[in-house]
From TrEMBL:
Species, as recorded: Durusdinium trenchii
Name assigned to this protein: Selenoprotein O
Amino acid sequence: MKFGQNLWRMLPSGVPQLREQLARRPWRLEVEHRQALEVRLGMSTAQLLPFLSSRLGDGDVAVGLAKSGRTFLGPALELGDRKLEATQTLVAQMFVAGEVLEAFSCSTPPVGASRQLLRQLWNFQELRWFGGNAHSFDGLLRPDDQLLVDVIGAGQG
């Protein structure tokens, strides 16, 4: 998988036990490993997320920061005739781990199913997005977007 190859190639030396941790959980960085990468690369968290998302895979990777401080990697996945977008994979990874998404980066604004999935998160209005030329979701939603809660509450679901 190209995502895994790019990840292993870009790892700097000098981050203790990072390779071992990624061998066990390749799509998750523990807090201490993220912090060590930031120090080693001379970056803040806000700089590291776009750095990782722009250098992993073929530009179709989302990188998210959980409220716990863990970092999750979400590559787009080809599943036969279906495809999970990077943001969808990221949210699924975090959901399975019982985490809450706080901030994320991807090369283009989430659209379509990814945007709708993000909108279902209880903390959507608080999410920070690092990608493109903006750092917020202003203007990303259309007035006709509906929350799943709105549909169920209206007896439509």
